[in-house]
Amino acid sequence: MNEPVPEAALQAPSPAAVKTEQPRSVFLTTLAWFRDLMLSVLVAVLVILFLYRPVKVEGTSMMPTLYDHERLFINQFSYKFGLGKIERGDTVVFWAPEDIRESYIKRVIGLPGDTVAVQDGYVIVNGKKLVENYVPPEYRDDRSYPPRVVPPDEYFVLGDHRNSSNDSRAWGFVPRSYIYGKAVFVFWPPSRLGTVH
Fold first, then answer.
1. Which one of 1, 34, 63, 179 is separated from 150 by 20 to 30 angstroms, measured CA to CA?
2. How far is residue 67 from each of residues 62, 72, 77, 177, measured CA to CA in Å?
3. Looking at the domain that runs over 54-195, which CATH code has it been given?
4. What string of DSSP letters covers the chain?
């Protein structure tokens, strides 16, 4: 005579049922991981497109701050739509005034309304000698530049390697609308990893 099967035994999952749920769990975990990866990639792309942009330094005009072939991130958002304030000493990237198909990277020296001059290689802003610890003595030159007033919405820029820089001394002021980024972080080569001062 057969004994009645307990109700709990009827509801317990069989070993086969447990095995079929495990692959589904692995699939869902993989799917969640892939979703998170794609979301991370999307956020990274948006950050690079709208906030930061990688650029490559070409030339020696910003040595020793930046070296030829270094790669760095520029902050595009801080200057976009005129939101960010450009300060003296900022290292900026801009369209070349004499050929907007090219970009330059230089340091902001003169702000709108400033009177800028160069005497025997030393920069004078509003009658005072500018302290420039970022320009080593061997990178200075003895060229002079007569006093000029920086027009509204324009900037006077110089390279840190003064005797090897094509800058405002040669082609004049940079319009605000041409400046599209501020150098913030060197990421290549690894030996130069760090913020741009």
1. 63
2. 7, 11, 24, 26
3. 2.10.109.10
4. -PPPPPHHHHHSPPHHHHHHHHHHHHHHHHHHHHHHHHHHHHHHHHHHHHTEEEEE--SSTTTTTS-TT-EEEEESGGGGGG-SPP-TT-EEEEEETTEEEEEEEEEEEE-TT-EEEEETTEEEETTEEPP-TTS-GGG-----EEEEEPPTTEEEEE-SSGGG--SHHHH--EEGGGEEEEEEEEEESGGG-EE--
Q: Which of 78, 106, 128, 129 is catalytic?
A: 106
The pLDDT value given to residue 53 = 83
Return all residues near 38 (Cβ < 8 A) that are at least 6 apart. Answer: none
Mean pLDDT across the stretch 140-146?
89
pTM for this structure? Answer: 0.75
* Cα four-point dihedral sign 30, 34, 40, 41: positive
**Known active-site residue 61:** yes
Which residue out of 14, 40, 56, 61 is catalytically annotated?
Answer: 61
Domain ranges of the chain: 7-49, 54-195
Residue with tokens 């930046």: 66
Structural contact between residues 70 and 188, judged by C-beta atoms closer than 8 angstroms: yes
